[in-house]
Design a protein that fits this description.
Helix content is 65%, strand content 9%. It is α+β, with helices and mostly antiparallel strands. A 5-stranded mixed beta sheet has the order 2-3-1-4-5, with helices on both faces. A hairpin with a 4-residue loop joins strand 2 and strand 3 (285-290).
Protein backbone atom coordinates (compact mmCIF):
# COMPACT_ATOMS: atom_id res chain seq x y z
CA UNK A 1 0.00 0.00 0.00
CA UNK A 2 2.80 2.40 0.88
CA UNK A 3 4.70 1.59 -2.28
CA UNK A 4 1.62 2.00 -4.43
CA UNK A 5 0.79 5.33 -2.82
CA UNK A 6 4.35 6.58 -3.24
CA UNK A 7 4.35 5.60 -6.90
CA UNK A 8 1.01 7.33 -7.42
CA UNK A 9 2.45 10.53 -5.95
CA UNK A 10 5.76 10.34 -7.83
CA UNK A 11 4.34 9.59 -11.27
CA UNK A 12 2.52 12.95 -11.78
CA UNK A 13 5.70 14.78 -10.74
CA UNK A 14 7.69 12.76 -13.27
CA UNK A 15 5.21 13.46 -16.05
CA UNK A 16 5.18 17.19 -15.32
CA UNK A 17 8.99 17.19 -15.27
CA UNK A 18 9.07 15.47 -18.66
CA UNK A 19 6.65 18.04 -20.03
CA UNK A 20 8.69 20.93 -18.62
CA UNK A 21 12.00 19.68 -20.06
CA UNK A 22 10.70 18.33 -23.37
CA UNK A 23 12.26 20.25 -26.29
CA UNK A 24 9.50 21.24 -28.67
CA UNK A 25 10.83 20.97 -32.23
CA UNK A 26 9.42 24.13 -33.78
CA UNK A 27 10.55 23.30 -37.32
CA UNK A 28 9.04 19.81 -37.17
CA UNK A 29 5.76 21.27 -35.95
CA UNK A 30 5.63 23.81 -38.78
CA UNK A 31 6.49 21.15 -41.39
CA UNK A 32 3.76 18.88 -40.02
CA UNK A 33 1.11 21.61 -40.08
CA UNK A 34 2.20 22.64 -43.57
CA UNK A 35 1.95 19.05 -44.80
CA UNK A 36 -1.62 18.94 -43.47
CA UNK A 37 -2.51 22.22 -45.19
CA UNK A 38 -3.12 23.89 -41.84
CA UNK A 39 -0.60 26.76 -41.97
CA UNK A 40 -2.58 29.01 -44.33
CA UNK A 41 -5.75 29.06 -42.16
CA UNK A 42 -3.64 29.63 -39.04
CA UNK A 43 -1.80 32.51 -40.72
CA UNK A 44 -5.17 34.05 -41.57
CA UNK A 45 -6.31 33.83 -37.97
CA UNK A 46 -3.07 35.37 -36.65
CA UNK A 47 -3.26 38.17 -39.23
CA UNK A 48 -6.88 38.79 -38.25
CA UNK A 49 -5.78 39.15 -34.64
CA UNK A 50 -3.52 42.02 -35.70
CA UNK A 51 -6.43 43.76 -37.45
CA UNK A 52 -8.62 43.41 -34.35
CA UNK A 53 -5.87 44.76 -32.10
CA UNK A 54 -5.40 47.74 -34.44
CA UNK A 55 -9.15 48.45 -34.21
CA UNK A 56 -8.97 48.34 -30.40
CA UNK A 57 -6.08 50.83 -30.43
CA UNK A 58 -8.01 53.14 -32.78
CA UNK A 59 -11.10 53.10 -30.55
CA UNK A 60 -8.92 53.76 -27.52
CA UNK A 61 -7.27 56.72 -29.24
CA UNK A 62 -10.58 58.21 -30.43
CA UNK A 63 -12.31 57.84 -27.07
CA UNK A 64 -12.82 61.01 -25.03
CA UNK A 65 -11.58 59.16 -21.97
CA UNK A 66 -8.70 57.55 -23.84
CA UNK A 67 -4.98 58.20 -23.34
CA UNK A 68 -3.55 61.41 -22.03
CA UNK A 69 -1.52 63.73 -24.29
CA UNK A 70 1.76 61.90 -23.70
CA UNK A 71 0.09 58.50 -23.83
CA UNK A 72 -1.74 59.20 -27.09
CA UNK A 73 1.39 58.23 -29.01
CA UNK A 74 1.25 54.71 -27.59
CA UNK A 75 -1.98 53.57 -29.28
CA UNK A 76 -0.82 55.14 -32.56
CA UNK A 77 2.42 53.16 -32.44
CA UNK A 78 0.54 50.04 -31.32
CA UNK A 79 -2.02 50.47 -34.10
CA UNK A 80 0.70 50.83 -36.74
CA UNK A 81 2.54 47.80 -35.35
CA UNK A 82 -0.69 45.78 -35.34
CA UNK A 83 -1.33 46.59 -38.99
CA UNK A 84 2.25 45.68 -39.89
CA UNK A 85 1.77 42.44 -37.95
CA UNK A 86 -1.35 41.65 -39.99
CA UNK A 87 0.37 42.39 -43.31
CA UNK A 88 3.41 40.34 -42.33
CA UNK A 89 1.41 37.27 -41.33
CA UNK A 90 -0.76 37.53 -44.42
CA UNK A 91 2.00 37.95 -47.01
CA UNK A 92 5.28 36.67 -45.59
CA UNK A 93 6.26 32.99 -45.17
CA UNK A 94 5.87 31.46 -41.74
CA UNK A 95 8.55 32.94 -39.45
CA UNK A 96 11.51 31.06 -38.03
CA UNK A 97 11.46 30.17 -34.36
CA UNK A 98 13.58 33.18 -33.40
CA UNK A 99 11.49 35.62 -35.45
CA UNK A 100 8.31 34.13 -34.01
CA UNK A 101 9.54 34.80 -30.47
CA UNK A 102 10.62 38.33 -31.35
CA UNK A 103 7.20 39.08 -32.84
CA UNK A 104 5.39 37.87 -29.74
CA UNK A 105 7.80 39.69 -27.41
CA UNK A 106 7.26 42.95 -29.29
CA UNK A 107 3.50 42.40 -29.16
CA UNK A 108 3.59 41.82 -25.42
CA UNK A 109 5.51 45.05 -24.84
CA UNK A 110 3.12 47.11 -26.99
CA UNK A 111 0.07 45.54 -25.35
CA UNK A 112 1.41 46.36 -21.89
CA UNK A 113 2.21 49.95 -22.87
CA UNK A 114 -1.29 50.29 -24.30
CA UNK A 115 -2.82 48.94 -21.10
CA UNK A 116 -0.98 51.46 -18.95
CA UNK A 117 -1.28 54.53 -21.21
CA UNK A 118 -5.01 55.24 -20.99
CA UNK A 119 -6.82 57.43 -18.49
CA UNK A 120 -9.83 55.12 -18.48
CA UNK A 121 -8.67 51.82 -16.96
CA UNK A 122 -11.57 49.99 -18.60
CA UNK A 123 -9.69 50.24 -21.90
CA UNK A 124 -6.59 48.98 -20.16
CA UNK A 125 -8.34 45.88 -18.88
CA UNK A 126 -9.94 45.21 -22.25
CA UNK A 127 -6.56 45.47 -23.98
CA UNK A 128 -4.96 43.23 -21.36
CA UNK A 129 -7.08 40.40 -22.75
CA UNK A 130 -4.77 40.50 -25.79
CA UNK A 131 -2.05 39.02 -23.55
CA UNK A 132 -4.20 35.88 -23.39
CA UNK A 133 -4.25 35.81 -27.18
CA UNK A 134 -0.45 35.94 -27.49
CA UNK A 135 -0.29 33.35 -24.73
CA UNK A 136 -2.54 31.09 -26.79
CA UNK A 137 -0.14 31.41 -29.73
CA UNK A 138 2.80 30.42 -27.51
CA UNK A 139 0.78 27.50 -26.15
CA UNK A 140 0.58 26.01 -29.64
CA UNK A 141 3.95 26.88 -31.15
CA UNK A 142 6.48 27.12 -28.33
CA UNK A 143 7.57 25.28 -25.21
CA UNK A 144 6.39 25.53 -21.59
CA UNK A 145 9.34 27.63 -20.41
CA UNK A 146 8.64 30.29 -23.04
CA UNK A 147 5.00 30.24 -21.94
CA UNK A 148 6.13 30.67 -18.32
CA UNK A 149 8.11 33.82 -19.24
CA UNK A 150 5.06 35.23 -21.01
CA UNK A 151 2.89 34.39 -17.99
CA UNK A 152 5.27 36.24 -15.64
CA UNK A 153 5.25 39.29 -17.93
CA UNK A 154 1.46 39.23 -18.16
CA UNK A 155 1.02 39.04 -14.38
CA UNK A 156 3.43 41.95 -13.90
CA UNK A 157 1.49 43.94 -16.49
CA UNK A 158 -1.94 43.39 -14.96
CA UNK A 159 -0.53 43.97 -11.45
CA UNK A 160 0.79 47.34 -12.60
CA UNK A 161 -2.58 48.09 -14.20
CA UNK A 162 -4.35 47.15 -10.97
CA UNK A 163 -2.07 49.46 -8.98
CA UNK A 164 -2.81 52.35 -11.35
CA UNK A 165 -6.52 51.60 -11.15
CA UNK A 166 -6.48 51.93 -7.36
CA UNK A 167 -3.92 54.72 -7.16
CA UNK A 168 -5.85 57.04 -9.50
CA UNK A 169 -9.15 56.42 -7.78
CA UNK A 170 -10.72 54.61 -10.73
CA UNK A 171 -11.67 51.58 -8.70
CA UNK A 172 -11.25 49.91 -5.35
CA UNK A 173 -8.64 47.41 -4.27
CA UNK A 174 -11.14 44.55 -4.18
CA UNK A 175 -12.20 45.05 -7.79
CA UNK A 176 -8.61 45.42 -8.99
CA UNK A 177 -7.60 42.27 -7.13
CA UNK A 178 -10.49 40.40 -8.66
CA UNK A 179 -9.40 41.44 -12.16
CA UNK A 180 -5.83 40.27 -11.46
CA UNK A 181 -7.12 36.90 -10.23
CA UNK A 182 -9.22 36.46 -13.38
CA UNK A 183 -6.16 37.05 -15.54
CA UNK A 184 -4.02 34.83 -13.32
CA UNK A 185 -6.52 31.97 -13.51
CA UNK A 186 -6.20 32.00 -17.30
CA UNK A 187 -2.46 32.66 -17.55
CA UNK A 188 -1.34 30.36 -14.72
CA UNK A 189 -4.10 27.78 -14.87
CA UNK A 190 -5.80 27.44 -18.25
CA UNK A 191 -2.99 28.03 -20.75
CA UNK A 192 -0.40 25.76 -19.05
CA UNK A 193 -3.10 23.08 -18.66
CA UNK A 194 -3.90 23.32 -22.38
CA UNK A 195 -0.19 23.18 -23.23
CA UNK A 196 0.25 20.09 -21.01
CA UNK A 197 -2.73 18.35 -22.63
CA UNK A 198 -1.44 19.27 -26.09
CA UNK A 199 1.99 17.84 -25.16
CA UNK A 200 0.45 14.61 -23.80
CA UNK A 201 -1.53 14.08 -27.00
CA UNK A 202 1.55 14.78 -29.10
CA UNK A 203 3.58 12.28 -27.07
CA UNK A 204 0.86 9.69 -27.54
CA UNK A 205 1.06 10.16 -31.31
CA UNK A 206 4.85 9.80 -31.21
CA UNK A 207 5.02 6.75 -28.95
CA UNK A 208 4.65 3.01 -29.54
CA UNK A 209 1.84 1.87 -27.21
CA UNK A 210 3.31 -1.58 -26.51
CA UNK A 211 6.91 -0.81 -25.58
CA UNK A 212 6.65 2.86 -24.63
CA UNK A 213 9.48 3.62 -27.07
CA UNK A 214 9.20 6.28 -29.75
CA UNK A 215 7.62 5.22 -33.03
CA UNK A 216 9.07 6.20 -36.42
CA UNK A 217 7.36 9.59 -36.33
CA UNK A 218 8.72 10.15 -32.83
CA UNK A 219 12.21 9.20 -34.00
CA UNK A 220 12.07 11.85 -36.72
CA UNK A 221 10.74 14.40 -34.21
CA UNK A 222 13.47 13.88 -31.64
CA UNK A 223 16.52 13.39 -33.86
CA UNK A 224 15.86 15.95 -36.61
CA UNK A 225 17.53 18.70 -34.56
CA UNK A 226 20.75 16.66 -34.51
CA UNK A 227 21.03 16.97 -38.28
CA UNK A 228 21.18 20.76 -38.30
CA UNK A 229 24.31 22.25 -39.80
CA UNK A 230 25.25 24.05 -36.60
CA UNK A 231 25.23 20.79 -34.61
CA UNK A 232 28.83 19.56 -34.62
CA UNK A 233 28.25 16.29 -32.79
CA UNK A 234 28.84 12.99 -34.61
CA UNK A 235 25.75 10.90 -35.28
CA UNK A 236 25.62 7.13 -35.00
CA UNK A 237 22.52 5.34 -36.26
CA UNK A 238 21.87 1.66 -35.55
CA UNK A 239 19.10 -0.38 -37.17
CA UNK A 240 18.18 -3.57 -35.30
CA UNK A 241 16.08 -6.48 -36.48
CA UNK A 242 15.33 -9.42 -34.18
CA UNK A 243 16.46 -12.90 -35.22
CA UNK A 244 14.13 -15.87 -34.67
CA UNK A 245 11.37 -13.67 -33.30
CA UNK A 246 8.79 -15.21 -35.64
CA UNK A 247 9.53 -18.60 -34.05
CA UNK A 248 8.56 -17.20 -30.64
CA UNK A 249 5.22 -15.96 -31.99
CA UNK A 250 4.53 -19.22 -33.82
CA UNK A 251 5.50 -21.42 -30.84
CA UNK A 252 4.28 -19.48 -27.81
CA UNK A 253 1.77 -17.02 -29.27
CA UNK A 254 1.69 -13.29 -29.83
CA UNK A 255 1.26 -12.50 -26.13
CA UNK A 256 4.63 -14.12 -25.44
CA UNK A 257 6.06 -12.21 -28.40
CA UNK A 258 4.77 -8.95 -26.95
CA UNK A 259 6.49 -9.71 -23.65
CA UNK A 260 9.75 -10.29 -25.52
CA UNK A 261 9.39 -6.95 -27.30
CA UNK A 262 8.78 -5.15 -24.00
CA UNK A 263 11.83 -6.85 -22.46
CA UNK A 264 14.02 -5.93 -25.43
CA UNK A 265 12.80 -2.34 -25.28
CA UNK A 266 13.95 -2.20 -21.65
CA UNK A 267 17.34 -3.66 -22.67
CA UNK A 268 17.80 -1.05 -25.36
CA UNK A 269 16.93 1.77 -22.96
CA UNK A 270 19.48 0.59 -20.39
CA UNK A 271 22.27 -0.22 -22.89
CA UNK A 272 21.75 2.81 -25.12
CA UNK A 273 24.59 5.38 -25.05
CA UNK A 274 23.87 8.41 -22.83
CA UNK A 275 21.58 10.89 -24.51
CA UNK A 276 20.59 8.40 -27.21
CA UNK A 277 17.14 8.00 -28.73
CA UNK A 278 15.52 4.57 -29.03
CA UNK A 279 12.55 3.87 -31.31
CA UNK A 280 10.51 0.90 -32.44
CA UNK A 281 10.04 1.48 -36.15
CA UNK A 282 8.29 -1.77 -37.09
CA UNK A 283 7.01 -5.06 -35.70
CA UNK A 284 10.44 -6.36 -34.62
CA UNK A 285 12.59 -3.49 -35.87
CA UNK A 286 14.27 -0.87 -33.71
CA UNK A 287 16.47 2.15 -34.30
CA UNK A 288 18.97 3.72 -31.92
CA UNK A 289 20.41 7.18 -32.62
CA UNK A 290 23.21 8.48 -30.41
CA UNK A 291 26.21 10.80 -30.33
CA UNK A 292 29.03 8.28 -30.73
CA UNK A 293 32.43 8.89 -32.30
CA UNK A 294 33.36 6.50 -35.18
CA UNK A 295 35.96 4.60 -33.17
CA UNK A 296 33.37 3.74 -30.49
CA UNK A 297 30.47 2.67 -32.71
CA UNK A 298 31.26 -1.06 -32.77
CA UNK A 299 31.58 -1.22 -28.99
CA UNK A 300 28.28 0.64 -28.55
CA UNK A 301 26.48 -1.69 -30.95
CA UNK A 302 28.03 -4.76 -29.32
CA UNK A 303 26.64 -3.68 -25.94
CA UNK A 304 23.16 -3.61 -27.44
CA UNK A 305 23.61 -6.98 -29.15
CA UNK A 306 24.92 -8.67 -26.00
CA UNK A 307 22.16 -7.17 -23.83
CA UNK A 308 19.48 -8.59 -26.15
CA UNK A 309 21.21 -11.97 -26.39
CA UNK A 310 21.48 -12.26 -22.61
CA UNK A 311 17.89 -11.28 -21.85
CA UNK A 312 15.78 -12.80 -24.62
CA UNK A 313 17.10 -16.25 -25.56
CA UNK A 314 16.57 -17.58 -28.24
CA UNK A 315 15.96 -14.15 -29.76
CA UNK A 316 19.04 -12.21 -30.87
CA UNK A 317 19.56 -9.11 -32.99
CA UNK A 318 21.23 -8.21 -36.27
CA UNK A 319 22.49 -4.63 -36.08
CA UNK A 320 23.50 -2.37 -38.95
CA UNK A 321 25.55 0.67 -38.01
CA UNK A 322 26.33 3.89 -39.83
CA UNK A 323 28.14 6.92 -38.43
CA UNK A 324 28.47 10.44 -39.84
CA UNK A 325 30.79 13.17 -38.66
CA UNK A 326 29.66 16.84 -38.80
CA UNK A 327 30.91 17.34 -42.38
CA UNK A 328 29.89 14.00 -43.86
CA UNK A 329 27.72 14.11 -47.04
CA UNK A 330 25.70 11.19 -45.63
CA UNK A 331 24.60 13.33 -42.65
CA UNK A 332 20.91 13.02 -43.48
CA UNK A 333 18.39 10.97 -41.54
CA UNK A 334 16.85 9.16 -44.50
CA UNK A 335 20.26 8.35 -46.01
CA UNK A 336 21.55 7.01 -42.71
CA UNK A 337 18.41 4.96 -42.12
CA UNK A 338 18.73 3.44 -45.55
CA UNK A 339 22.43 2.61 -45.13
CA UNK A 340 22.06 1.18 -41.62
CA UNK A 341 19.10 -0.88 -42.79
CA UNK A 342 21.16 -2.35 -45.64
CA UNK A 343 23.98 -3.18 -43.23
CA UNK A 344 21.50 -4.83 -40.86
CA UNK A 345 20.20 -7.11 -43.63
CA UNK A 346 23.79 -8.01 -44.44
CA UNK A 347 24.12 -9.14 -40.82
CA UNK A 348 21.04 -11.35 -41.16
CA UNK A 349 22.51 -12.92 -44.31
CA UNK A 350 25.66 -13.74 -42.34
CA UNK A 351 23.58 -15.75 -39.85
CA UNK A 352 22.25 -13.11 -37.49
CA UNK A 353 23.34 -12.02 -34.03
CA UNK A 354 25.85 -9.75 -35.73
CA UNK A 355 27.01 -6.14 -35.91
CA UNK A 356 27.82 -4.87 -39.39
CA UNK A 357 29.22 -1.44 -40.25
CA UNK A 358 27.80 0.22 -43.35
CA UNK A 359 31.32 1.15 -44.53
CA UNK A 360 32.66 -2.36 -43.97
CA UNK A 361 29.86 -4.86 -44.75
CA UNK A 362 32.10 -7.89 -44.15
CA UNK A 363 33.09 -6.84 -40.64
CA UNK A 364 31.09 -8.58 -37.91
Amino acid sequence: MVDDGGEAHVKPVKIVSEWWHDPLDYRWLIRTLDARGALSPIKGVVAGGGVILAAICLLNWESATGPAVVGRLVPIVAMAASLLWAVYWWLAPWPSERVSLLLVAGSDVLITLGCLAGNDRLYGWLLAIALIVTGGYLTVFHGPRILAVHTAWSLLSVSALAWLTVDYGDGDLTLAGSAVLVMASVMVGLLPALHFAYWALRMDALTDPLTGLLNRRGLVYYVSARFRRDDRRPICLMSLDLDRFKAVNDTYGHTAGDRVLVRIAACLRSACPPGGVVARTGGEEFVVCADVWPEATVAAAERLRLAIEASSDPVTASIGVVVADPDSPRRDLEIMLRESDSAMYRGKQLGGNAVVLADRPDEV
